[in-house]
Amino acid sequence: MSRRDQIRMSDQETAKFLEDGRTLQVATIGQDGMPHLVAMWYCLLDGELAFWTYAKSQKVLDLRRDPRLSCLVETGTKYEELQGVQVRGRGEIVEDPAVIEQVGELVYARYNDGPINDTVRQALAVVGAKRVAVIVHPDTVITWDHRKLGGGY
């Protein structure tokens, strides 16, 4: 069995890793062809990565021109602890207020303590008025979990 096969995560492991992850690195393709890389808070929407961002942000401008993107969630400080999921695919910009609200609430719930009450919903609606949702439709998912090597290289 190849080293690559030894460290690959199962679908269930991948889903759990993304559910537990904290920061999504998002790379879009700039107008000059250079990558534009940012860190985003995210959620899972129907099993796919999703985030919300300002409609006029550079990543949205890039995705309107070229929907290809690459995303990464990773963790670990030593080689034998490294885990990650890279998703390469297409970013769908969603301007439907109901979807933007849903993604905003899911992201808020992931990163903030406390319930989403009417006050929080109103605040999210104000912020969401200038945002879009981006749903990541994967073409390729690459995973690794070096813990499966048992401390070896």
Descriptive notes:
This protein is α+β, with helices and mostly antiparallel strands. It has helices at 3-7, 11-20, 58-65, 97-111, 118-128, and strands at 24-29, 35-40, 43-45, 48-54, 68-75, 83-94, 131-145. Helix content is 32%, strand content 37%. Strand 5 and strand 6 form a beta hairpin. Helix 4 packs across helix 5. The longest helix has 15 residues, at 97-111.
Short description:
This protein is of the alpha+beta class. The chain has 5 helices and 7 strands.
Could you outline the blueprint of secondary structure elements for this entry?
Elements: H1 3-7, H2 11-20, E1 24-29, E2 35-40, E3 43-45, E4 48-54, H3 58-65, E5 68-75, E6 83-94, H4 97-111, H5 118-128, E7 131-145
Antiparallel strand pairs: 1-2, 1-5, 3-4, 4-7, 5-6, 6-7
Helix pairs in contact: 4-5
Q: CATH topology, anyone?
A: Pnp Oxidase, Chain A
Low-confidence stretches: none
Structural domain tally: 1
Distance between the termini: 14 Å
Question: So what's the CATH class?
Answer: Mainly Beta
Backbone shape: globular
Q: Tell me the CATH architecture.
A: Roll
